[in-house]
Amino acid sequence: MDLKHIRNFSIIAHIDHGKSTLADRMLELTHTIETRKMRDQVLDSMELERERGITIKMQPVRMEYKSGNEDYILNLIDTPGHIDFSYEVSRALKAVEGSILLVDSTQGVQAQTLTTLAMAREGGLKIIPVLSKIDSPLSRVEEVKEEVVKLLDCDPDDILLVSGRTGEGVDALLKEVIKRVPPPVETYPPRLGEAGQGDNNLRALVFDFKYSNHRGVTVYIRVLDGKVAKGENLIFSASNEKFTSLEVGTFSPEETPRDFLSAGDTGYIVTGIKKPGIASVGDTITMLKNPLPALPGYMQPRPVVWASIFPEDADDFTELKAALGKLKLSDSAFSYEEESSGSLGRGFRCGFLGMLHLEIITERLRREFDLKLVITTPSITYEVLMKNGKKEKVYSPYYFPDDGDIQTVFEPWVAVKIITPASYLGNIMQLLFDHEAEVGETDNFGDNRSAVSVKMPLRELMRNFFDDLKSVSSGYGSISYEIGEMREANVTRLDILVADEAVPAFSRVVSKKRVEEEAENAVEKLHAVLPRQMFTTKIQGKALGRIISSRTIQAFKKDVTQHMYGGDITRKMKLREKQKKGKKKMKEHGHVNIPQDVFLKMMRSGQ
Question: 77 vs 412, which has greater pLDDT?
Answer without folding.
Answer: 412
